[in-house]
Write the structure tokens for this entry.
Amino acid sequence: MWSLLAVAATTVQADDAIILYFYERPPYMVKHGEADASGLTADPAAAAFKNAGIAFQWQLSPAKRQLVKIENGHELACGIGWYKTAQREKFAKFTVPIYRGKPTVALARPDFNPGGTTLAALVANPAVRVLMKGGLTYGQDVVRIMATAKADVQVVTGEQPALARMVSAARADFMFSPQEEASMLITLPEVRPRGLKVLTFSDVDAGNTRHIMCSKKVSDDTIARLNRAIGQGANPGRASDKGF
């Protein structure tokens, strides 16, 4: 009898647990073992769920698939480290910030010498080839500037390391990356032989805040509990000062 009750309780707990989606994107999210993750956004997200007493299960999933599942709203599911945009607010709920990033930069071929210091001037040139990952946004400044860009923009489905390899192979002039991630991408073994350089822009300010993004099936009470737990933790605005 007790064993049956234990099984039933376990089943209920598993059914009620929120799926916490992540994908491999060092240093923000790194997989450990079969069911764990850590990183700049994974750690504060997990801490928020644990401190709020909300059951969750890590699940590895590509970023674009996460967006589809959260937009469909059929699951108790959240993704971590997402930018909060007006478009996403139409189908998702967001917590308060869990991390504030450093400015977005560009990773370019060593022989790419555009001149100037602004992104707006660079992407006004139709001959410039830019790679962007579908489903991601790179902060308000980059989104605003790229909305009127005349550059040749190619949107691809690969993850950021794949884009870095494409730039290194001269299939594009540059790609965008948060500064924290850029320092890791330039060390990839496949990139090192040819190399990549980091470009910064005077018209791209400090990075935007990153949040836990949940499907509409997740209750407002759950979001409120997560917000309280996040508020009791470290200030996400200080994260960018720690040299990550």
The longest strand covers residues 77-83.
